[in-house]
Amino acid sequence: MHRIVKIALVALGVLSAGLWYMLPGSEVPPSEAIQSGAMSGMFSVMWLLLAIATVSSLIFGVSKMLTAPGGMMKVVKTLVAALVLTGIGYGLASGEQEVVDAVSSERGLETTIGTVKTIGTLLNVFFGMVVIAIVLMIVPGVKKVLGR
């Protein structure tokens, strides 16, 4: 299996190098460059690699979750934490008509209060995860320095 994966990766690498060489030059307008066969091929290789990475991550993640002791409990705890964080993010998000009007007048985009609230929720969840990641990186370092 390992040998097959290596051969497939080498073949994709050679194919990608050939497609890279065939990409249109910088003098070609972007509207024409995006329609080239080499560009379509590069996108196809990218989607193939993304699909392979996603499927293998799911397979190995699920197998690890099912075989590790306490794996299912860790997944449940993580999902509950994500739901709590999403609930907090939704509570902190504001969907105000002023924002909708500002987006409409400044950007010329039509949107709704619900869309603004959803974007606010997702931003709050992202920033919450950033804060959690920073805390999880700093706390062990501080404990190590203090010797506890």
Q: How would you sum up the global shape? A: flat
Name the average pLDDT. 86
Q: In percent terms, what proportion of residues is strand?
A: under 5%
Secondary-structure element series: HHHHHH
Q: For the report, how would you describe the main beta sheet?
A: none
Radius of gyration: 23 Å
Number of DSSP E strands: 0
**Terminal Cα separation, in Å?**
45 Å
- Contiguous runs where pLDDT drops below 50 for at least 5 residues: none
What is the SS-derived class?
A: mainly alpha
Number of domains: 2
Helix proportion: over 70%
Instruction: Figure out the total of helices.
Output: 6
Outline the structure in words:
The protein is mainly α. Helix content is 83%, strand content 0%. It has six helices and no strands. It has helices at 2-22, 30-33, 37-67, 71-92, 97-107, 113-146. Helix 3 packs across helix 4.
Briefly, what is this?
Helices cover 83% and strands 0% of the residues.
Index terms:
mainly alpha, 6 helices, flat, single chain
